[in-house]
Amino acid sequence: MSVRKLVRRLLVPAALAAAASCYPGGPGTEGELDVVATLHAASHDYSVNKTYAMPDTVVDLAVAGGGSSSLSHTYDAKTLADINASMQSLGYTRVDGTTTKGDVILLVGGISVDHTDVWYPSYPWGGWWGWYYPYPCPGCVPIYPWVPVATQYSTGTIVITMIQPSAPHASDQVPVVWAATINGLLTGSDASIQARIDYLIPQAFAQSPYLSVK
Amino acid sequence: MRAPTVLVVAALAVAGTAGPARAQTDQWFGISWQMSAPIANTKDFTPSYSFRGLGIEWRWVHGRTSFGVNTAWNVMTDERSETASVGPADITGKQFRYINAAPIMASLHLYTGSQDGSARAYLGVNVGTYYIERLVNVGTFEIKDDNWHLGVAPELGFGFPLHGSLGNTALFATARYNYAFAAGDAPYQSWLGVYVGIAYRKL
Fold first, then answer.
1. Which of A33, A63, B8, B189 has an alpha carbon 20 to 30 Å from A172's alpha carbon atom?
2. CA-CA distance, B98 to B77, in Å (whole number)?
3. Which residues of chain A have a CB within 8 Å of the CB of B96?
4. B171 within some domain
């Protein structure tokens, strides 16, 4: 086989391989996978709320729901401190919920979920090999390391719920006037996780300017 | 695959010999690096100029005309951090956006000059379908739609035949306007493709 023919045979598979290899990647750090979502009651007048109460507890939502959980409470104090700081920067005053009735109550919960994905790193583009007329290669079989790759990761979610017990409601339902969920990977160094908490919790309030009572 | 190709080539060859002067017929196989400049709806989704794309094509050239087929893989991407509002919900996160577009088209071209080895300009139109996948990754979540769009793509290009031991090889450059009609929940998609490639003539 001449060099020119060999080059022709290899050109298309090589180009496809090059194209696949330069396919853009996704996130490069844990922080790029963080998501902050907030939901508000469109008809609620937030300006009437001046005080809030908040238990000093991050409830394990999986356990509260009757299941098991691997939720770490290492960062509970920091999480609650950041929520307090954010609420007070919006003009709210914290009250002791055991003795004083706040205008709203913040409930904080958390849950962690373990994920396992199995995938194959190679796509069988070698099926293109035989197309290249006039050099069919019917006997050629692409050889690939079809080795499955398993990835495991844990995601964590913090849920902040703002309820208003004084608003009219059914006996078994309490109106939720605002909620935030903060989701991300439970990986990284201690400093990295603390930095992400310091960014993500204020972000939940920053993207909810209607909460301000200043 | 061979039988339909042979039939088409044979039919066109017969038609081509009906005239008083017989023009030379050639088959060309090309591969191209395809860049994309998104337009309109496509630009809203992924605004950046993309250098990622690969195409292959076959042309049966007869005198100043050719018939062919082509397909490609065009990738357009974007990364952005923003707060998106949907009704009473606001969502903040880094978005990784991708468009994977795969046109599968039949083409018709008209050429200047003759098949004497000199450079030729060509004007063509491609008609067929586009498979377009639009993907948004936010956090560990993925939102995707994919549809088959009917499409049309006029193009303008130049071919530069090489000489000597590479006499059956040509370089080419093409500018193609890709337009994929709305399909499913996806609006129409469009982008300007800039292709450079190499083609071989079957002996």
1. A63
2. 4
3. 26-27
4. yes
